[in-house]
Every structure is written in structure tokens, then in C-alpha cells.
Amino acid sequence: MIAEIVKREDLDRELEKIGTDRAAFDIFEWKSRMLLLKLYDISGKGANILKQEFIGAGGDVAVHRDVASWKKEKTDCLLIGTERTFRKVADKLKFEPFFGLTDVRETLIKFLERKSLPIFNIRNKEFDFNKHVFIMGILNTTPDSFSDGGRFNDIDRALKHAEEMLKEGADIIDVGGESTRPGAEKVPQDVEIERTAPVIAAIRKEFKDAVISIDTYKSEVAKKAIENGADIINDISGLRFDENMAPLAAKYDIPVVAMHIKGTPKNMQKNPHYDNAIKELLTYFAERIKALNNAGVEKIIIDPGIGFGKRLRDNLQIIKHLDAFTIFNLPILLGVSRKSFIGAVLDEPTDKRLVGTLAANMQGAQNGANILRVHDVKAHVEAVKMLEAIKNA
Prior knowledge:
The chain is an alpha/beta fold. The protein has 14 helices and 13 strands. The chain is globular and about 70 Å long.
């Protein structure tokens, strides 16, 4: 009889059952960890050298069929091998600084030296993204949001809804004052401040330890929100639409959610197109993270922006391949709640999309999501509890 050990977290358990010396656990993990990494747009000559080095170290590299005959100037590469293989190749590349291989070596070393996800401490609450998937409850103070527009746009109703979500187990309350549904018009910042700041102040007064995020791409709105008790900036533009947003986040040393959007809410769904959505988003986040770090912003959460300038197939592929974004070693927020791509798959109206939302979010959580932004808090708290019980069994 033979059994395959598929999940990496099962390795230590199996070594323990066998009775292996604990001093050897790290060695076996190192030898058994198979890695598959994709590199984009590598020089054909560099790809040939990479392939030779990986084969020599016990691995391999998949390249375009015409690379060996020098007909292809650039190619994507799939690097295959154990962690031990990758480390051997990284050492060898020290002596081959040609055809972009210096950048490849730096990328490999950065990947191999990844640490665990960061831990944020906010309002007496520890957000350890290595251990738990957290729930962000949506509180729209807008008259026109696609799902709950007009339901919570006065302080009393907003405060009651925040209380309900906190009782149901929400870890974060996300307050927004401008609808970013497809085709939405921009709201003046004074109106957005009038909608959000008093609500945030009321939640902070009533629930002193509640963690609150402000959903805005305007720095003045974010500033007023922080002054009234907000703890996180959730910016659909990745802190790009307002040049003062990154300095503001750096000044207050506040966590930010940097989302990907193609276009603006007004035009983002007018025939969006990607040759390769995952590649484009990886490039975007690499650039945004570097820019934010250079601006002094260190506490970053990334959000692939489901529904923000994406086609149905883009949304589905992003969730399916969400683990591609774990390469950045940053928490990932996933926002799919009741969105139109779920309606397109299930042919259900907005208020009948809970099952589809749960399915998409649980797949996302399995693929690397650390925060789920949702309307239906209780259902997601219970779903995550069940998912984590199975995972930790």
C-alpha cells in the first residue's frame, strides 16, 4: 500500500508518525519542497543558460520550442525543481551576469528568502494572516451602491448595522461614502466626508476596540476618517488617483489596501481587455508595492479588484489563480460579495447571490485570501470557521 503526501503541511505530521529524528525535519522539508515558478519575457539566450543550469542541478526549465534554435528572442519560462535546486542555480548565476540573469537571480533569492506574512496590531486586535482568514463587513453610507444603496445612509441605521456585523464576528468594518459600481459618477469630497466621518466617529465612540477602514481614494476623505477613528485606508485606485494619499498613509503609519482597477468606476467596464490578466496584475502590484514602499508606506494589503475593469473570465481566473499573488508575501483581500460575475454564472439577482459568494470566497480563502470583504458577515464567519477546522484537523 502507498499513500501520496500532497499537502506540505502534512509532511511534519507524517515524519512524526514514522518516528523520524526531529533534527532532520527541516532537511526533509528542504529536499521535498517542489517549486514551480513562472518568469515572463526572458531573453532567449538567458533562457537557454537557465535551462542548462537547472538540469545540472536536478531540475528543468520549460521554454518556447524555438528557443534552442535561437529563433525566439524572448520567452516565458517555467522553472521546475526542489528548493535545493533553486538555491544551487541562484549560486551558479552569480558568475553569469548576462542576458538579464542578474535580475533573475535577485528575483529567485527574494522568493527563497520569503518570511511569513506580516502581523498587524490594530486597536488591541492581532491580525496574524498566517493563521486566520479575517472578515471585513461592508457598511455603505451611499444612496446608490449596487447592493445596499440607501439602507444605511443615516447615522442611526449605520451604527445599528455596524453593531450587528460586530456581533456576528466581523473583524473590520469598512465604511464607504461613494459608490464605485460600474458607471458610477464621482462624488464631491465634502459630500463623501459628510457621509462617512460622522458614522466613523459614532462607531468609534460606541465600540472603542472596533477596527474601522475607510473606503475612499481621496486623501482629504481619508484624513477626516482617520481623525475620527479610522484605522485602515481601503483605496480602489491602489493610492494612484490622489498623489497625497501615500504620504498621508506614511504619516499616520496606517495599513492600506491597494487595489487593482483598470480605468475608473465610470468607464472600467467599457470593454476591458487583457492579453494575460494574471501577468498584468502581477506587473501592476510589483510596481505599486515598490512605489508605496518608496513613499514610506510599509503596511500593505493587496486586492486584485474583482469586478473593477474585469470580464467574467478574468474574475474567475483571478480567483482560481489567486495563489499567484502570494509571491509578494503580503496579505491579500478578496472582494466578491454579490458581484455581477456571480449573477452571470448563476443567473441570480443581487439579493440571491449568497451561495455563489460563499463558494467564490471559500475558493479564494483556499487559494491565499487573508481578508474577505462581505455583506453577509455571519455566513462567512461560519464558513471560514468550518474551512479552518478542516484545514487544521
